[in-house]
Amino acid sequence: EKGGFPHFMLKEIHQQPHAIADTFAGRLAAGTLQQELGIGTDEARAIRRIDMIACGTSWHSALIGRRLFEEFAGIPASAEIASEYRYRPRPTEEGTYALAITQSGETADTIAALRATREAGARTGAICNVVGSTVAREADGVLYTRAGPEISVASTKAFTTQVTALLLMALTLGRLRGRLDPARAGQLSEALVKAPEKIAGLLGRMAAPLQALAREKANSNDFLYLGRGYGYPLALEGALKLKEISYIHAEGYPSGELKHGPIALISKGLPVVAIAPNDSLRDKVLSNLEEVKARDGTVIAVGTEGDADLASLADHAVWIPPVEPAIVPLYASLPLQLFAYFMAVERGCDVDQPRNLAKSVTVE
Ligand code: F6R
Fold this sequence. Notes:
Layout: H1 8-14, H2 16-24, H3 32-37, H4 41-46, E1 49-54, H5 56-73, E2 77-81, H6 82-85, E3 96-102, H7 108-119, E4 123-128, H8 134-138, E5 141-144, H9 157-176, H10 182-217, E6 222-227, H11 231-246, E7 249-254, E8 271-276, H12 282-294, E9 298-304, H13 308-313, E10 316-320, H14 328-346
Parallel strand pairs: 1-2, 1-3, 3-4, 4-5, 6-7, 6-8, 8-9, 9-10
Helix pairs in contact: 2-9, 2-10, 5-9, 5-11, 9-10, 10-14, 11-14
The structure holds fructose -6-phosphate.
């Protein structure tokens, strides 16, 4: 059942090219997504804010979604941790669209937060993987991620398919609201359609070097993950994967926060994983990395092929092809997942069933 892979997690990492393709299949044509979500055109135009509700890895998708909705649809958006949101006094605002993001559809806090927003009068939607789950049944509309069953406790394909679904939604809303011209929407769709094949190639190329890197770093007990823009949620996600399955202390930070505290942690050899693709914030991440190097930290970079400055700064680097910044999360999450996986294997951890964790958190 593991399809020749030693663990479900590795199998699921490799299923991502297919899973992403399944997520966008048949949904790029105008109108299809609206139908699934049950949002009429007038309604889509009347949305004034999107509150995304999620936990864990799904919350990291929400952080990416926030940027996608604001960038492509011009809709103010927030990424809310469900356990906080459900207990926060909120002024209700007309035109609020509450979007639950959940692989299982059974996370107790996400369900409760979704119910609270419905009661407050918000229109609700869900991005969910499990057909017929509680969230899928209770939301006004559902966009299924079609990732297939995710067995490994650590989420991988659920994450990248959620990001794909969010991108589809942002493009749809951007077009309906006249925010995104058809040519630009076409470019982004095309970049998305090309992703599965390129990602499959990348997975093949990256595995061996990342395994070697994990061997080298297997005894490191602290990691810092840094990124900006779309890279910030990826830093959080990379750190979460590492702690969940290899039990190594890891912190994810927006790299602009480095000076505001975490730089004090940097000492000789501290591994700093930097997500530094070639986007508008790349120069700023590089200057943060110079500060890391000045303090003898070890830089492990995820960057764009051909970035000579980053290559000279980094002690180790993994390269992704040049792609649209909004699509980068689909590529850059792969080395982070694979690295966490190999670290856990090197340390003899139970990859698919990490201690203390359950696949779906059905109690508060
Ligand atoms: C991380 C992980 C958890 C889940 C979280 C939300 O690898 O698996 O952080 O992402 O418990 O679960 P869902 O998406 O089912 O609501």
